[in-house]
Automatic annotation (TrEMBL):
Pfam families linked: HD_5
Protein name as catalogued: HD-GYP domain-containing protein (C-di-GMP phosphodiesterase class II)
Superkingdom as given in the UniProt entry: Bacteria
GO MF term list: phosphoric diester hydrolase activity
Organism (species): Silvimonas terrae
PROSITE patterns in the record: HD_GYP
Domain HD-GYP: 56-252
Amino acid sequence: MPAAQRDTVTSSASAARSVASLVLNARFKLYDLLQLQPGQGDFTQRVTDIVWQLQLACEQNPDVALAVILHAQEGKYSIRHSVDTALVVDLVCERLDMNPLDRQSVVSAALTMNLGMIALQEALSEQSTPLTSAQREEMHRHPLVGREMLRKLGVSDQLWLDCVLQHHEMPDGGGYPARLQGEELRFEARLIGLADRYCAMLTQAAWRSGSVVDSALFRTLRAHGSAADAKLGRLFGDTLGLFPPGAVVRLANGESGVVKQYANEAAPLVTALFDDADMPLLEPVDRDTSKPQFAITEMLEPESLIGRVQFEQVWGAAAAGL
């Protein structure tokens, strides 16, 4: 993000004192925006302001930004899921060294990818029965509906519009709405689709339990056909790792804690918080999981930390409000 833009976001988000609160505030802003009430300012610019705020959070501390996905699953599913997806997309775009304007367009698309099915998405997050035929038809139409809604709201950015239209297409032609294949799909749209599915797997909902992190990653890459799209699969794995920040893990010495920082795919830095009897340590301690005695042996559910941890113990002031 250019310095002038960053200064604008910093000023407009002066009440946000941490990376976690920047992300949570972005959810609030997106919720307010998607009420789609007329006369509330330029839609495109308001989306852009949210993008800049998320990019600022990722620049300041990407580990905390990712941890919000696992440890802040309150509020409307449709909103937090779009913000979660946008965070993952922005971090992968940064790793790609994508030019700033294209990166902004792709993150904007991630934020608005489900504009055409917000009410349905909320209903499905509470639904324990299979989709009805009408629901399935609406789901298959929502990329087209969303693109047209964006056009009516003044969006003319072709990359943004194409990514919204194509984010459910698959390289093998098995996606929707147009069953595009191979090079007919934009790479950026496939990236959004992969991030969309990954974040959905980590979310608690009535019709599924949140997936343990490494399982979700592997299942997402397989479902996406990463053998035919090795570049995207590699970028995604390199950005998140098998154990992304915020993942709750048990170590070989019996301690358990939170992945603090991505170090390499299989051996991140972990802050141990509990001993082998599941009692709080006197002081949190960072563990290098590349060492055999601190190797990760088990993934635990994020819910196991509810009410037991202040995340400032792991990341300091950047995690305030999480």
